[in-house]
Amino acid sequence: MFNLTKRDQSDSLKTEKSYYPLLPLRDVVVFPNVVVPLFVGRGKSIKALEYAMSHQKEVFLSAQKDAKVDDPSPGDIYSFGTLSTVLQLLKLPDGTVKALIEGKERGRIENTLVKQEFFMVEVSKISRRHETTVETKALMRTINASFKEYAKLNSKIGQEVVSTMISIQDPERLGDTIAGHLTLRVREKQELLETQDLNKRLEKLFEKLNNEVDILRLEQRLRTRVKKQMEKTQKDYYLNEQMRAIQKEMGTKDDFKAELNELEKKIKRKRLSKEANARVKQEFSKLKMMSPMSAEATVVRNYIDWIISLPWHEKTKGKLDIEEAETILNEDHYGLEKPKERILEYLAVQTLTKKMRGPILCLVGPPGVGKTSLAKSVARATGRNFVRLSLGGVRDEAEIRGHRRTYIGALPGKIIQFLKKAKSNNPVFCLDEVDKMSTDFRGDPSAALLEVLDPEQNFAFNDHYLDLDYDLSDVFFITTANTLHSIPLPLQDRMEIIRLPGYTELEKLNIAKQFLIKKQTDQNGLQSENISFTDKAIFTIIRTYTREAGVRNLEREISSICRKLARKIVKRGVDAKIALMAQSIHKYLGIPKYRYGRTEEKNIVGVGTGLAWTDVGGELLQIEATIMPGKGSLVLTG
User: Fold this and answer.
1) Does 440 share its domain with 327?
2) Do residues 189 and 212 both lie within one domain?
3) Residue 176 lies in a domain
4) Which of 225, 316, 554, 610 lies 20 to 30 Å (CA to CA) from residue 148?
């Protein structure tokens, strides 16, 4: 330091001028009352420090306006800086110097002397005599509170620093010390350094401190969010890597890829509707992104399997030869002229138009008259596949329309399931016992059948599971029922009702001779030449051992006789021949179960003869009268 000094005093400001070596700083502003380590590498700066160490250890620190300038001129340096003391100087092996410097007081460059090695600057020292007002104390408190919050958010500032700040009573020292710990830009710190009014300086410090607290809070929220996301990403990556390792060990990954390739080939080969094709491609894209071990992958894979396994465009060619169809129907069933006629009419119209929606017939009649077997014969006569769905006891609407895929274990409804089983989209579909459906809290299955059996709607049947429109218009629906009174009227309105009355004795005789006896002899291992039934024997079975509109019990009685005859033939020998007469029937079937066409031989007092009509035919009734105590008046019971 040169021995040139000037003093200029006023009431509040004291200025002293002296010459000191200049140390320009890059990106650093040193405040009074702050100790900082500096690493110095430029030659002029090292010379300035060496000069300071040999002359009272004082140096003037001032920040560069542009840190990129390597050899700054006086115009590149801020005029305000800090007069500091070099506490320690350490030369490093790479030629640089580490200096420990303590800021003492503010100063302003008044003049610059350019020396060969470094700059010497004339500095006017600026010190203020401040009175600690109430406003100053309030600012100190708020700054301390904000700095506590700042220290909590900034991990670089320890608790001991906060304790030190609280213990500082000098407001100027407090402001400079806190400013030195803030992460501010050089221009902002320089602004604080240059502000001479203490209260204004503290206000600016408080404002910048609050801004830094807000920034740190936002940074903390961002770090927390990013950390959570990274933890989730790392967790997913770790789990996926583990899964890949397990799959590689077990070979499931390769199996899954092979399965996907096979599934993709099936999708390309399958002819689907436009809507179904778009849905399958969408679901297949999802499946490729899933883990093969996930439950969702199984659900999607099953869904795709169901879609591509359905017959969307597969049809059976069918037979259009009416004469052949009529022959087949007559071979399988005796009588039933009206339903046969309706089926032949359908074939005739289809022959002429080449395109006709499948009819929806409802065969109504007592049990055993051949409703279900007639549906099978229709399939054989028309050359179509046959499927039969029994609706007896069905009470859940989902049985018809399926469950939505959101449910665990969801499946399509029975209509779609049986069409998959039929392997064609134009089978003969028998809905058996349509009058036996019931209703409960799960819905009304008969209401779900309205869409299935409506020719104006079933071309776009929507199953809940598939959630796609499926064309049922080519399906030949045949429903069967014993009575109509339990079938809802809207459902009746969608079907063509064909009544099948009970068989007469003569029809039963012909059915037995043409179908039943031959069927039972074959099933029981008998030959037609070994056994024969006379017409009277068959009539005896019909009249005294059965009472029905159909022929099921008649078939059971014939089957019982055939089993007993098989036992006899085995005892006598294979060549034994047996002819059944009317008078020998009771030997095989026991005592007659019913009295047929017989009444009392003599009139009996109190007994009259009457006639009754039932579902199984006419019947003679013996009506008895008896004496009852009373007034003899007519009582109507309703």
Assistant:
1) yes
2) yes
3) yes
4) 225
- 555 and 457 within one domain: no
Q: How many residues does the chain have?
A: 638
Alpha-carbon span 344 to 620, nearest angstrom = 40
From the number of C-beta atoms within 10 Å of its C-beta (0-12, 13-18, 19+), residue 30 rates as buried
Domain tally, the chain: 5
CB-based burial, 291-315: b 16+ in 10 Å, e otherwise? bbeeeebebbbebbebbbebbbeee
| Cα Dmax for the chain | 168
Give the DSSP H or E segment for 222: helix 198-250
Q: What DSSP letter does each residue of 605-638 carry, written as one string? A: TTEEEEEEEETTEEEEEEEE----SS--------
CATH code of 194's domain:
1.20.58.1480
* DSSP codes, 237-254: HHHHHHHHHHHHHHTHHH
Residue among 484, 489, 485, 487 at smallest CA distance from 500: 484
What confidence tens digit (pLDDT) does each residue in 61-104 have? Answer: 888 888 888 888 888 889 899 898 888 888 888 888 888 988 88
What pLDDT score does 2 carry? Answer: 41
Give this prediction's pTM: 0.55
Which candidate, 512, 615, 532, 546, places its Cα nearest to that of 578?
A: 532
The answer on 213 and 102 residing in a single domain is: no
Q: Is residue 494 part of a domain?
A: yes
CA 217, CA 215: separation in Å to the nearest integer? Answer: 5
- Domain coverage including residue 156: 134-219
Q: Is residue 226 part of a domain?
A: no
- 347 with 463, same domain: the answer is yes
Residues 517-532, mean pLDDT to the nearest whole number: 83
Confidence of residue 242 (pLDDT cuts 50, 70, 90): confident
Contact 127, 106 (CB under 8 A): yes
Is residue 347 in a domain?
yes
Find the mean pLDDT for residues 589-612: 79
E strands along 236-297, which residues? none
Q: Tell me, yes or no, whether 427 and 293 share the same domain.
A: no
Contact 437, 452 (CB under 8 A): no
487 and 558 fall within a common domain: no
Q: For 374-378, 393-397, 542-546, which range has the lowest pLDDT when averaged over its residues?
A: 393-397
Could you tell me which of 164, 167, 105, 170 has the C-alpha nearest to residue 132?
170
If you search the block for the tokens 């046969």, which residue do you land on?
340
- pLDDT tens-place string over residues 165-177: 888 888 888 888 8
For helices 186-194 and 198-250, angle between their N-to-C axes, nearest 10 degrees: 160
